[in-house]
Design brief:
2 helices; alpha+beta; two-stranded antiparallel sheet
């Protein structure tokens, strides 16, 4: 099945329990936050949903290991909002996920 789609299977090393840790964490996260909450209408739809989620995951989603920063913003200092600052909410994936940022 994988060869028909042009994919190559990469086997993990024997007796190396942490070899799959990053991939397993990614699969768990994308399933829990995205795929478990929606129905896929086909391969193209699934690819579009995953592309939008990957963009959100890398550019906007806070990560605990990065001091609540997104991976694509690791060099920049986070914005600190005052109590009177306006916050704007953006819907991602049709409202499944919401991103918040300071309004300009």
């Amino acid at each position: 099945m994988f060869a028909a789609e042009g994919m190559k299977v990469i086997r993990t090393p024997i007796q190396a329990p942490r070899a799959n840790a990053s991939a397993e964490r990614w699969v768990r996260t994308v399933r829990a936050e995205c795929l478990d909450w929606m129905l896929s209408a086909g391969r193209r739809h699934l690819e579009n949903v995953l592309a939008e989620y990957v963009e959100h995951y890398n550019a906007k989603r806070p990560h605990r290991g990065l001091s609540l920063r997104a991976p694509d913003t690791t060099g920049r200092e986070p914005l600190v909002a005052s109590s009177t600052a306006a916050v704007q909410r953006n819907a991602v994936l049709g409202g499944l996920i919401h991103e918040y940022e300071l309004a300009a």
